[in-house]
Amino acid sequence: MSRILHPTLNRLFHIGLFDFYVLIAVGVCTIIEVPSHILLILWELLGFTFVLSALITLSGIFFAKLYKEFEAISIFILQAGLALLILNAVL
Question: What pTM did the predictor assign?
Answer without folding.
Answer: 0.86
